[in-house]
Structure formats: C-alpha cells, structure tokens
Amino acid sequence: MLKNITIGQYFPGNTVIHKLDPRIKIIITLLFIISLFIIDNFLPYLFVSIFIFTSIFISKVPFKFILKGLKPLFFIILITFIINVFMTKGEILFEIGPLDVTKEGLKLATFMALRLIFLIIGTSLLTLTTSPISLTDGIERLLNPFKRIGVPAHELAMMMTIALRFIPTLLEETDKIMKAQMARGADFESGNVLKRAKSLVPLLVPLFISAFRRADELALAMEARCYRGGENRTRMKQLILSRRDYIALGISILLLGLIIVDRLL
Amino acid sequence: MIIKVEGLTHIYNPNSPFETKALDNVNLEIAKGEFVGLIGHTGSGKSTLIQHLNGLIKPTSGKVIIDGVDISAEGANLKDIRQKVGLVFQYPEHQLFEETIYKDVAFGPINLGLSEEEVDKRVKEAIELVGLNYDKIKNRSPFELSGGQKRRVAIAGVLAMEPEVLILDEPTAGLDPKGRDEILKQIKKLHQDFNMTIILVSHSMEDIARLVDKIIVMHKGRVSIVGKPKDVFKKADELEELGLGVPQVTYFMRELKKRGKKVRDDIITVEDAKEEILRLLRGNGNA
Predict the structure, then answer these.
(1) Which residues does UniProt assign to the signal peptide (chain A) (predicted)?
(2) A252 and A215 within one domain
(3) B79 touches chain A (CB under 8 A)
C-alpha cells in the first residue's frame, strides 16, 4: 500500500527534462503554478495540457507512474469537487435533498478539480525528474539572493535535503514495522475510522522512536565529520545554465504569456 | 511437511526501473520439528523468503503451503497462518510500543481474539519462556530495559501467539556475547522442549553449526545448497564463492589435515574438534 506514494520520488532517466538545470526546473514549475491560478476559463487548460503532456512524453516517465501519484490525493480532489458543486449559488440544474446543484457550481467544481490535478501532475513531474540532491541545490541557489535579508538559505536547503533523503528510509521503516505488527496479528485495514486510527498506535510509536534515534545518529555523524554549513562551502557539482535551459524557460514564459493574454481578453 | 514452497518467485516493483527479482523459482520443504538454518549473503532473498512463509507478502508466482493450506491462494485466512507461523524480524525491539511489557506481549494474543484468562496465561508463559522474571517485569516500561532484554520481550510477543513454526531473522544481531548466548539458549530450548519447528536466519556460521539440523543456502534468489550442516560445511570453497564461509574451527581442522594430520573433515563445532584433537594427541590419529 505504501508503494503508491510517488510524491518526492525520483524516476531516474537521461532525457532533456532530467538534464535541465534544477533552478530552471523550479522556476518553470513556479511559472506553471502561477499559470494555473491565472486561468479563469476552460480553453487555456488546452495549452496547459499540451505543455504538461509533451513534457511527460519527453521525460519518458510512464504515465501510470504519475497517475499513481494522484491516487493518495484522490479524496482531496473529490472533496474539493463536491464542496464546489454544492456550495456555489446560481442557476439551479437539479436538487439532491436540501442541496442544490447549480450550473455554475458544476463548472467551478470541474475547474477546481482540473486545477488541482494539473498542480499535482506538474509538481510531481518536477520531483520525478530531479534527484533530491539537485533539487535542494537548486533551491539553495535560488534562495541565495535572499541571504542578505537574513534567509538562512544553506540551512534551509540542508534541512530539505535531509528531509527528502529520509522519506524513503522512513517509508521502508514504516513498511517493516507494519509487517512486524501484522505478524503479531495487527490489522491495519479493516474496521471503522476510530478503530483504524487506534490501530495506528503500534505503528506510530515505534516509527517516532526510530525517527528520533536516526536524527540523533545523523547529527552525531555530521558533527564527527566536522560539518559546518554556510560561508565558503564549495560544491562538487557547479550549476551552469546551458542553451536548453533558456529554451525551456522561454517556452514556459510563452505559456504564461498566452494565459495572461487569454485572461485579459 | 509443515512448510512446502513450490516454484516461488517474487519480483519487487515490477514494470519500473527499480524492478528486482528477489526470489527465483524457490522450492523447499521443511518438516515438523526441524531446526533449519537459512544462510546467504545480504540481498540473497532470505528476508523475502521468510516473509512469504506467513503471508506478509504474496508471491509473484508459485505456491507456499503451510500445514496443507495454500496461503498464497485468494481468501486464505491470514490471521490463522500468522498464528501458526511466528515471525521475529531483525531488531524486533524496534517494534515495542506499549507502556508496559505485559501489554506489549499481550498485543498478539489480544489480536487473536483470545479470552482474558488465556491472554494472561500466555503472556506469563511467554515472558518466562524467554528467561525473564514475569512478576518483576510485567509492569515496567519496555523502553527502560537493556538491549538484550528488550529483544527477549519482543520475541516473547511472538511466542505468546503460540506458533508451531518460529522464524527468527538474525535474532542475535547487535547483541553482546552474553545476550547472544542467552537468546540462542532459549531458542534451542524451544526446539527441544516443545518440538517447535524453527527457521533461523543468521550470518554466524558458528551458531548455525551448533544449533541446526539442516542448512538452506540462498544465493541470488535461488536455493543453492540444502543439506546437513556437516555436509554443507564440507563445501568450504563453494560457500566462500557465495560470500559465505564455514565455522572457524572447520577452517582450523582443514589446515591440520593439510599439514598431514589424520583428522576427520566433518568437524563443525568446538566440542567435536576438542574430541578429535584429544584423540590425535593420544597418538592413535598420528600418521
């Protein structure tokens, strides 16, 4: 069941998308998200779909993999959809008990659901095609200008690197503890909400203990290797922008431009 | 046969770049009351194999039959199987979670839906079975115990389910010599006193040589050698090629033999070696 989580999981490859500078990829993703929030009717979604599906195609990440990433968030999307359907006032199409389904509601709900789906696909494409290390490298470099106003860029990036690095470890640990408790007859899958929540105690307590133990050990190991963050730290891989980065950035600015123009018209 | 594995294959992450074949057409049989040692270098598929034996993971293809029941079939009663086959994972103390030792050991029996008296009885028995003092320890927190004691509490948690087969994945890893000896002693006792079928995964060839009736050697997801310890450990070169070895004392006896002493070549425990060397010194083994 834990295998379904693809958020923050890297899908190794050697395509143009994989090779893009992480800074550019992060900026493109931000532009993409901004585009999604500017959109106010259905037509621009066509551009967005072309953009995102072409990217997925080039990246060679199997589409199934991306769909799997949507699965855990299915309920959030569903709830957003339902709330929007019922809570929007307007021309009534039909009624379900005390609730009205309006034309505007249905439109807005589809609209919001699409926005969420594209948001998730876009951001998961970023993490699927960028290794966690280069991702945090990119974030650190992007935050660098803000150092002057006291943003601890390096520390933030380091924290993120560590957090990302431990996602698979913790998932593995969760899987292991779950299996160990299942071997003792624990049941995580049946019963009502309350019973299921209660059944998580044998999982969460050992998980927290092990997370703290790992954190402790990691801190010690870093200190033992004289870790000091910040000033004058050099890096093994220098980030250098190349032509493909500018082209990719150009394309996404074009997308944003199109959507802004559409909105203004 | 209490355990029968037929053509068992397991593939992790199928159809992704991380696809790995952990088990490849594994066939084996384990009889009731047997004490089996499972060895193999890291990543040889031991852990995957033992997790199949109580239905924690499903085979990609092949069958696992426990006591005549095919547990890989749809709708198999897994609770039943997990009661019958107790699995103690590596570092089992990492799964302790309750406030008191009593509650933690009772977790399994309660999940089985047993009556309060039965749970009570089993917890007491299990704690004493692993050599701890029930009255002294039952209301203490499992987190204030020493490493070896914690591990024994965790093992008691599995024993309290009264399994017929007990599988232990490196039960002595990371313990001091005293803790290690105690755990192994308890395991041996379980085998002798209750005729429990035991599968022991270990990297210590000494422990394996001393305890088990049969060795199964895994390599690259396949069963590569099966046999009695004395026979398996004769194949020192083959085992070394698989990233394993033989007990130190077997190397020692082999060296003696190489130097022209007439000693037996199937010696795997220190006790046997002692007898053999004494025999040699008394003069009736010298060439």
Answers:
(1) none
(2) no
(3) yes
Find, in chain A, the residue whose alpha carbon is nearest to that of B157.
A184
Domain ranges of chain B: 247-287
Same domain, A227 and A248: no
- Give A182's contacts in chain B (Cβ within 8 Å): 56, 82
Whether A102 and A228 share a structural domain? no
Among A171, A161, A4, CA closest to A75: A4
Q: Name the domain count of chain A.
A: 2
Surface-to-core class of residue B232, CB atoms within 10 Å of its CB (0-12 exposed, 13-18 middle, 19+ buried): buried
Query: What digits encode the pLDDT tens for the residues B45-88?
Result: 999 999 999 889 999 999 999 988 898 888 888 888 999 999 99
- Full residue range of the structural domain in which residue A32 is found: 1-130+238-265
| Nearest-neighbour CA in chain B from A129: distance (Å) | 13
* pTM of the full structure: 0.75
Interface test with A, best of B19, B66, B87, B97 (most A CBs within 10 A): B97
Q: DSSP for A53-98?
A: HHHHHHHT--HHHHHHHHGGGHHHHHHHHHHHHHH--SSEEEEETT
In B, minimum Cα distance to A65 occurs at B16
